[in-house]
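Dear H.,

Thanks for agreeing to be a second pair of eyes. The structure we're designing against is below in token form, covering all 293 positions.
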């Protein structure tokens, strides 16, 4: 909106109209001398599958961290579902229904896949001592529901057989799927995914995409996902937001974005060799999940 280049792609459907579930305005984050995010503004429509693209180093991941409460912006505002979330911690934002995936931590790695899922459910019945001691019928019922929900999700992501395995023994791709499945346990209304397809085999990747479509159509879940593969973006996103050098340079429908000269220039000139065919040149941030932080 306030970005310098009024791209043609912005014109047909001005963002920020009534049905935006999320809006960020003028977000800035400096790391030392670098402005990783430099005045980024964008909106996400309720019920959309919106892709966030841009050359490596554009500030996409940092932007995610800023809007989900992991980092504090130096400047800027963010509103989710009509409520200001600026300065809120991530757990409070998640409780409102705006959820991003969390890496499986060391502690979670020592728990089984199923336990990871159970722990991700909000208001987990087993947490309360009184429920452990007396096991009221409501608690038993709730636990059964949570278990069923967990098993269904594990089935979707082909993790059922790994139920009893420790999360730490999963491959990088399986871990990413578990992270996504855990996020879904919270029944989010707005789900943010940072390169969900990276490191996952194509069959599972397709299943993941199908599941996103299904959640959107059946439960009205809104998605914002960072993705490198333009084919995936073109075929699965209804809106695309483009970042370059810390700013949003275009927002619009995939077809319009594909032909936007400003976007093409950003990819060619952005100091990144990443082309628009998902060729996968130099993507240092993609394979990190394997490295057991
Ligand atoms: N914690 C950090 N400290 C210092 N610089 C950072 C930090 N996180 C990101 N950056 C820098 O901010 C810029 C944007 O990075 P990032 O958000 O990861 O981009 P993208 O996800 O679009 O590839 C890069 O120049 C990166 O080196
Ligand atoms: Mg990134």
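And this is the sequence the design step returned. I haven't edited it by hand at all.
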């Amino acid at each position: 909106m306030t970005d310098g280049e009024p791209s043609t792609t912005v014109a047909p459907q001005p963002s920020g109209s009534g049905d935006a579930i999320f809006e960020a305005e003028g977000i800035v984050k400096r790391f030392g001398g670098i402005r990783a995010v430099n005045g980024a503004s964008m909106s996400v429509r309720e019920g959309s599958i919106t892709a966030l693209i841009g050359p490596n180093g554009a500030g996409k991941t940092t932007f995610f961290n800023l809007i989900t409460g992991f980092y504090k912006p130096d400047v800027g505002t963010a509103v989710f579902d009509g409520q200001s979330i600026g300065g809120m911690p991530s757990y409070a934002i998640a409780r409102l229904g705006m959820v991003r995936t969390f890496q499986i931590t060391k502690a979670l790695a020592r728990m089984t896949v199923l336990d990871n899922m159970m722990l991700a459910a909000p208001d987990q019945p087993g947490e309360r001592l009184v429920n452990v001691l007396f096991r009221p019928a409501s608690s038993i019922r709730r636990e059964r529901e949570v278990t069923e929900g967990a098993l269904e999700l594990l089935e979707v992501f082909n993790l059922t057989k790994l139920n009893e395995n420790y999360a730490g023994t999963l491959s990088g791709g399986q871990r990413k799927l578990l992270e996504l499945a855990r996020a879904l346990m919270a029944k989010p209304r707005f789900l943010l995914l940072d390169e969900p397809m990276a490191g996952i085999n194509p069959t599972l990747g397709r299943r993941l995409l199908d599941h996103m479509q299904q959640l959107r159509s059946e439960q009205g879940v809104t998605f914002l996902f960072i993705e490198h593969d333009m084919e995936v973006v073109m075929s699965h996103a209804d809106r695309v937001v483009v970042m370059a050098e810390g700013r949003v340079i275009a927002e619009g429908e995939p077809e319009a974005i594909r032909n936007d000269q400003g976007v093409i220039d950003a990819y060619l000139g952005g100091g990144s060799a990443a082309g628009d065919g998902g060729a996968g040149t130099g993507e240092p941030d993609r394979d990190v999940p394997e490295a057991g932080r």
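Two observations from my side: The first strand starts at residue 20 and ends at 31. The chain has two domains: 1-107+189-279, 109-169.

Warmly,
E.
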